[in-house]
Amino acid sequence: MQTKVFLFFSVFFALSCSKGNNETVALIEKNLELAVEQYKAMDLTVADSLFPRSTKPDGSLMTNKSWWWTSGFYPGSLWYLYEFSGDTAILSAAQKKLKALEKEQYSTYDHDIGFKMLCSYGNAYRITSENSYVPIIVNSAKSLLQRYDSTVRSIRSWDDIGDTAQFKVIIDNMMNLELLFWATHQTGDSIYYYTAVEHANTTLANHFRPDGSSYHLVSYKPQTGEVLYKKTVQGFADSSAWARGQAWGLYGYVVCYRETTDPSYLAIANKIAGLLINHPNLPADKIPYWDFNAPDIPGAKRDASAAAIMASALIELASFTDGNQRKLYLAHATEILKSLSSDVYRAKTGENNNFLLKHSVGHLPANSEVDVPLSYADYYYIEALLRLKKTLK
Ligand code: GLY
To answer: Model pTM greater than 0.85?
Structure first.
């Protein structure tokens, strides 16, 4: 009798889980199909050489040229949407944008070349295996190497190469390491891999506080590598947890663990995830305030971009864990994606300058891009939807 009752509940539980999964997959597919339509419409509004970035204060579309740090996200979103839909209009829009980005392979003026070239060309190569993309991505990795310094054992984020006053590294820079890992896979040359590892170790040693939150900026003395100061630029306070910075750190160390299987990277990723998931200032819908310690909570602006990055990172992190931790990460990422897909955050077709998500924050202390759509919020939202779909199927 006991065995029959156990069997009944096991079957009932399995059926309700698969019904829940089916509903989530349907929601994901609906949102991706809508995204294909929105991005096809967006493509018609942008000149070939420009990249959608956000919305201007007057409500019109804000674009940027290829040098700006966000230029890879729109092409990357197009590639993901082509992968999902096979739609040839999306493919030709994506190819057009690669052309406009090509010259950035040689840019050495900041660390953002990983964002620019791996989100765009990296996805394009993964999807098409087009060989002509390989040297462009490898050149991009070479450009990033030029910003590495063996005394500081880091890649310089901002400021010109050769600046002797200070050497600035921001937590966001963790996101550019994937380009280096990619280059070692492709070329067999371990210089890229070891540079990424050095940077990740230096950041691990200096950016994190005991609770797992991170400083935005650490400035080093170039001659010795000693830490000069730690502060914020885009967050509320030097000691606060700027939401997108926490998301970059989480995503960056998940990638580092995937590429190296170094347990210290998994440990910090789990620690950041625990902090973010259990944070007392995380709102019920799981979309963080732009800074976890913003002074005007609960009135503070939300940052959909931080939420989307966290969701995508948590889904990958779940694949390196098991049991309740895996369930927790997937459940949290699913809740984020359901909130982002609701009318509160998800724009209707034809609105929001055809961006998918509303309510992100770029740089609040500079009063720049506050409560707006951002191309990278859309990119990580699409990536997270695709990752979750793959996990559930
Ligand atoms: N620098 C990248 C960001 O604003 O998150």
So the answer is: yes
